[in-house]
Write a structure and sequence with these properties.
The structure holds two protein chains of two kinds.
Chain A: E1 2-5, E2 10-13, H1 14-31, H2 36-45, H3 50-74, H4 80-107, H5 110-142, E3 161-164, E4 169-172, H6 174-190, H7 195-206, H8 210-236, H9 241-264, H10 267-290, E5 297-299
Antiparallel strand pairs in A: 1-2, 3-4
Helix pairs in contact in A: 1-3, 1-9, 2-3, 3-8, 3-9, 4-6, 4-8, 5-10, 6-7, 7-8
Chain B: H1 8-30, E1 32-34, E2 42-46, E3 50-53, E4 60-68, E5 73-79, E6 82-93, E7 96-109, E8 112-116, H2 120-123, H3 126-131, H4 150-166, E9 175-176, E10 178-180, E11 184-191, E12 198-208, E13 211-224, H5 227-237, H6 239-263
Helix pairs in contact in B: 5-6
The chains are: A mainly alpha, B alpha+beta.
Amino acid sequence: MQVYLPIAELSVDALLLLGLGGIIGFLSGLFGVGGGFLMTPMLIFIGVPPVVAVATQANNIIASSVSGVFAHWRRGNVDFKMGWVLLGGGFAGSTVGVGLFSLLRSLGQIDLVINLCYVIFLGTIGALMMIEGTRAMMRRRRKAAPRKLHQHSWIHGLPLKTRFRKSRLYISALVPLGIGFGVGVLSAIMGVGGGFILVPAMIYLLGMPTAMVIGTSLFQIIFVAANVTFLQAAQNQTVDVVLAMLLLVGSVVGAQIGTRIGSRLQGDWLRLLLGILVVAVCSKLFVDLFTPPIDIYSVGVPL
Amino acid sequence: MNWLHGSCRLRKMGMRIGVILIIGILAVTAFYRIPSARASSLVADLSDHLIAITTGFSGASVLLFGATEEAGDIVVIVRGPSYPVLMHRKSRVAGIWINTASMTIENVPGFYAIASSRPLEEITGEPVRRRHQMGVEYLPIAPPPAKASPNIAEQWKSGLIRNQQRSGLFPQEIGQVSFLGRRLFRTRIVLPANVPTGTYLVEVFHLQDGRVVSAQTTPLSVSKIGVEAEIFDFAQNRAALYGVIAILVALVAGWLGHVVFRKG
C-alpha cells in the first residue's frame, strides 16, 4: 500500500514503514537505545531526504521511548533523579552541539564528521561491550568470586557527592552532568538521541545496574528527542508527521515486545547483543568510508 | 437554468458539459505560441492540466495529444520547475572518500523528459537541438566559467545529469510520439512519485526537414491536494505549533501503546 509523505515528498510502502518502526521499537525496548542510529540510515536508504529522516526519527523516538519508559517504570526501573541530572547536562551539551553542527556544515564536512563519529564511537563502545559481555559470562560459568559492583577511582573523589538511591550509587553529581553534556554534544552532531553512547556510559562510567540504566536512558531520551523534534520543525520544517505516525505505530508495539523480552534476559546477554548490533552497524559505515562511491559527484540538499 | 430542475441524470450531464467547456476555455487561454511561420499548423493538449498529489500518489501519467496540418515530426519536452542545486565531489584522502569540492548550480529543472516521433538525430541536426534544448546535454546547467574551466564544468554537468537520471527525474529513455494516420499524434508523459511540485511546461515542436515550423507550450501543474497540502502548509506556516503537535501525538501514541499492552 503506497502512501505519499507530504514533507518528504515521495511515496513509500506503508507496510515497509510499519515493519521498520517495529524493528526499531523492539531494539529500543530491549536495549534502551532510541534506535536513531539505525533508523536514520534506513530511512535515507529508502529514499527519504536526510534532513527529513533525521528530524522525523526524533519524533518517532519520543513515542517508542514513552512506551518503553512506562513499561520500565512499572517494574521500578527508572531512576528519575539520575535522569534529571543527565538531562540537565544533555540540554547544555546539545545547545553547544547545535552550534558546532552549523560550523561544520558551513565548512562542508558535516557528512564526514558524522560518519567518523559513528565509526569511532560505535566501534569503541560496541567492541568494549562485546568484550565485557563475553568476559562476564565466562566468569559466571567458571563460578569465580562475585565481582564488585563498581571499582573506585578518581571519579569518586569529585565534589558535590549525591546519593542516587534507586541506582544504589553515592557519587558526585558532576559525573552524570558531564556525561549528559558529552552525549548532548554528540547527539546534536550525529542527529541521534544518544542512547547507544549513554547506555554504556551509565553502565561503565557510573556503574549503574543494567536494568536501571535502560529505563533511565529512555526517560532522558524522551526529552532530548522532543527538543530535537521541536527545533527541527520550527527552524527547518523537516518533521513529516505522516512518516512519523506510520513509524510510531510499529515502534510502540515493538517497544512493548522488546521490553518484555529484555526483562527475561540477563544483563550480560543484553550487553553482548547490543555490542554485536553496534559493531555490525559500525563495520558497515567503516567499509562505506573506504568503498569507492557509485558516483564521485552527488547532489546535496536543494537550497 | 431549466436543466437544474430536471432529473439527476440531466443535471449531471449538464455539469459534465459545463466542466468540459471550462476545461476547453482554460486550455485554449493557457496556450501561448512561439511565433512561427505557419502559426496554426500545430494544435496539442493534455488530458489533464493538474496532477493532484494525494495520499495514494505513486506517480502519474498524462496523455498529450494533438494534430498538425501537414506531415512532419513531433518532439515533446516536459520541464519541471527550476531550482538551484548544491553538488559535492568526492575524492580519496588517506583512503577515505571525502567531499572535497562543492558547487552550486543554478536553474536546474526539477524534471526533464523528452518524447519524439523518431530518434532525435534523425529528426534534426545539432544546432536546432541545441537551440531548443532537445536533450539533457543541451541544458544550460554547467557551473559558470568564473567557477570552473570548461573541461571541469562539463564534468560537474554530467555528474549532475547522472544523479538526476538515477533518481528518475531525468528519464533516460526517450518517449515515443506515435502518429495515428498522418496528422494526429499522441504520447504519454509519465511522472515518477518523487516529482517536485510546481508548474511544468510541456513544449511541443513540429519539425519539417529538420526545421522547427511551429511550436506550442502548455502548462502542467503538479500540486499537493487535500490532507497532504494542508499538512504541508501547516508545517510551513505554523512551524512551532506543528512541532508541538507532532510531539504531543508521539507522547499520546507511546502512552496508548503502553495502556493497550498492559491490558492485553
